[in-house]
Task: structure prediction
Amino acid sequence: MGAHRDSFGTLDFLRNLPLFRDLDVSQLEAVAAATTEQRVHAGTELFRRGDPCEGIHVLVLGRVKLALHAPAGAQKVMEIIGPGQSFGESVMFMGKPHMLCAEALADSLLLFIRKNALLEAVACNPQFARRMLDELSARLYRLVADIEGYTLKSATARVTAYLLAALVDGAGPGQTADVALTASKSVLASRLNITREHFSRILHELSQAGLIQVSGRNIHILDAAGLRQREN
Result:
């Protein structure tokens, strides 16, 4: 799998993303012209800490993890990127090298948009600049929420909050719902700042309490209201 030009409809995909909806046709075409399609296998490293940031990635299909790596080999997963999400904006605007490593968790299709085209669009379109600011502000908000969870909430509260956030339509009293884990338990545990063993133990405790039922990566929520009581 390598990088090549648009073969699936880059322009249409970008047009339907909230981030780019304020660009006019000529601006969108300029961004699409600066975009390269990347198809990668699971386990492919997209960039490492210290690599120069020449643009941003937008995920079309698949999953990508952003992580910090310690010299001894340990890692802290900072974010799991899903389809429609982008990453790399903050260091691109700062002109800094990447601080995180990015690795595909599944076979993935991404768009890489070069820096110059994005900076030109920001300079020419205040609405697009505002959307970029909104995206960066949302990420800062999530980062602060993560720090709050790591420092002020128990591991059980963090796991239950993750499960409840993953509910697509939610589940009220007496209702059940299913959650498919988006990554391996080790990756999700790192994202939640706990060990894989602790993550598995919490799932077992929630299962024993009759709140969930675990089957591999599928979690059947039996009592959403009961889970919410353990979220705080």
Residues 126-152 form the longest helix (27 residues). The longest strand covers residues 55-61.
